[in-house]
Specification:
CATH architecture of the largest domain: Alpha-Beta Barrel
Distance between the termini: 25 Å
CATH topology of the largest domain: TIM Barrel
Strand content: 15-25%
Shape: globular
Number of strands: 17
Helix content: 25-40%
Order of helices and strands: EEEEEEEHHEHEHEHEHEHEHHEEHEHE
Largest sheet: 10 strands, mixed
Length: 376
């Protein structure tokens, strides 16, 4: 609840202009308005910025309690600043150029995706979308009241043998979309009230996301973007995204090269994840939430606790606390279940025990991490 003179309002709530009866979903135009009266949960605002037309706004304030005299402010997503400066198109060109001899991710397939060649991720010049919806099962700072606007891409640059979304990541058939279609998906999720656009497994489709983003911004996209990745990312690609994504949410899956090779054929996973997470944190810092507890910027890290400690949880938690920040927001996840090929692998063909999960949480706390997303 907001009791301060400056309020950060959630993105995506409904607004009504009482002089014309028009309905708006984009709240960004309210930035800089002052509350002139409050009654029954509604707040009347008058614009005091230069060029004001003096219209009165009725605002259904679900997350914030506004008082007379409060100033309504809102976080501006980083990519809007980049777009205004004219630099977003330059980032698109950089990313698209990497597909000609593909080096977007650490696989470095060096095939020409622009001409239709297919590498490890089995994705060519067009992104493939499996589904999109308002997701209420993500971390609480992303979900808020109206959900995280998730767009699930098909295929992946890791293809873990135990993937919890095995049918999506390992089935690359169908679902190809043009940039304008992907832009429309972003806008539709924003219109539903989602607090962010959450791109799931985006590492192999960074150029396509950027192409769509330019179109979406032209049509009013303004909510923060979430880079929801398996953690196997190339630092050079993450640098292209500096100023584009407000929120990074990487996995840190493995510490030991043996298990990373066995499950993902990526023995260099730790090296790549460490470098990528360092760069992500450099760009956005620790997680920042507004008065409603909804994330507006920063780093969240996911770690899936696995049977027999094949993920080496203690080492991962120590790294995050000592090399990133003790204020890192970490989701220590307990939902592992044997999926895909894992049912035939004796090392991981069972769920974790309660004791394994409690031990993982203890390691996180002993390392000094305190912003933990867990059910215990």
């Amino acid at each position: 609840m907001c009791c301060l003179s400056i309020c950060m309002l959630p993105v995506g709530f409904r607004l009504f202009v009482d002089v014309a009866g028009n309905e708006f979903y984009n709240s960004s135009f309210l930035s800089g308005w002052r509350v002139v009266y409050c009654d029954a949960g509604n707040a009347g605002c008058v614009q005091e910025n230069e060029g004001s037309n003096g219209k009165t706004i009725l605002m259904h304030s679900i997350f914030c309690v506004l008082r007379k005299g409060d100033v309504v402010m809102e976080h501006e997503s980083s990519y809007l600043k980049l777009c205004k400066s004219g630099n977003l198109q330059e980032r698109v060109d950089q990313a698209v150029g990497l597909m000609r001899k593909c080096g977007l991710c650490p696989r470095e397939c060096h095939i020409d995706r622009l001409s239709g060649e297919i590498g490890f991720c089995r994705t060519g010049v067009k992104a493939k979308v499996a589904s999109l919806h308002a997701h209420f099962g993500e971390e609480s700072p992303l979900v808020g009241m109206y959900g995280s606007g998730t767009i699930f891409f098909r295929s992946c640059n890791l293809l873990c043998s135990f993937c919890q979304n095995f049918d999506i990541s390992h089935d690359a058939e169908g679902g190809e979309v043009e940039p304008r279609e992907l832009a429309a998906m972003m806008l539709s999720l924003q219109q539903r009230g989602c607090h962010n656009i959450n791109f799931v497994t985006p590492s192999h489709v960074v150029p396509q996301i950027l192409q769509a983003l330019i179109i979406a911004v032209e049509h009013g996209l303004h909510v923060p973007l979430v880079y929801n990745t398996g953690g196997y990312d190339k630092v050079d690609t993450i640098r292209i995204l500096d100023g584009v994504f407000d929120i990074y949410m990487p996995d840190f899956k493995f510490w030991d090269a043996h298990w990373a090779e066995r499950f993902c054929n990526a023995p260099d996973y730790r090296k790549q994840a460490v470098a990528a997470i360092r760069e992500m944190h450099r760009q956005v810092g620790d997680l920042v939430v507004n008065e409603s507890g909804v994330a507006v910027k920063g780093l969240l890290v996911r770690h899936l606790v696995m049977p027999n400690d094949v993920a080496h949880t203690k080492e991962v938690m120590t790294f995050l606390a000592e090399k990133i920040s003790k204020d890192t927001y970490v989701n220590v996840m307990d939902q592992y279940r044997p999926c895909g090929k894992a049912i035939w692998d004796p090392a991981v063909n069972r769920r974790i025990t309660r004791n394994e999960y409690i031990t993982a949480l203890r390691w996180a706390k002993e390392a000094g991490l305190h912003r933990l997303d867990s059910w215990i």
